[in-house]
Structure formats: C-alpha cells, structure tokens
Amino acid sequence: MSLEDIQDMARNSTTRPFEIMLADGRRLEVRHPEFVAVPGAGSRFVHFSHGSGIEVVALSAVVSLREIETPAATLKQE
After folding, report:
1. What distance in Å separates the CA atoms of residue 56 and residue 48, rounded to the nearest whole number?
2. Cβ of 4: how many Cβ atoms within 10 Å?
3. Three-state secondary structure along 10-64?
4. What is the pLDDT along the chain (78 residues), one digit of tens a residue?
5. Are 55 and 47 in contact (CB under 8 A)?
6. CA dihedral 58, 37, 72, 25 (to 10 degrees)
7. Domains along the chain?
8. pTM of the predicted model as reported, rounded to 2 decimal places
C-alpha cells in the first residue's frame, strides 16, 4: 500500500467512496476527496471524519482499501 494508492482512490471518492482498513480493525470512510490529506512524501496521512475529528494515520497501519457499495452502484449492476 502506498500514499499514491490512497490519493488515487480519494480523487474518485465523490463517485466511488471507499474505506481504509487498518490493522487494528478500524475502518476509515472516505466519501469525498477532502476527507483525506497526504502532506508531502511521507509515511502518514490525515483522515478527516465528520464524527471523530482529525486523525493522523501511519501508512504502515493500512492493510487494504475497499470500495463502498452505494445504492446507485447496486442499481447499475442489476
């Protein structure tokens, strides 16, 4: 997993929201590009949550990225 992977997913998050799965089992929801910030080339990113505030996350804590099923996406598949 790289910061570029997170940035790429975030760019498309207005139409394809996703979750960042962490090693401790938490899931960080990203439904808009403004919910994630990658400050420079480092090993951390910032997640902005409407419920939990701001969290700085180490890239090493990320185990996967997963698109969230949306009602519109479900209807398109049927």
Report:
1. 9
2. 10
3. HHCCCCCCEEEEECCCCEEEECCHHHEECCCCCCEEEEEECCCEEEEEEHHHEEE
4. 788 899 899 988 888 899 999 999 999 999 888 899 988 778 999 999 877 789 999 999 999 999 998 765 444 554
5. yes
6. 20
7. 3-69 (2.30.30.100)
8. 0.81
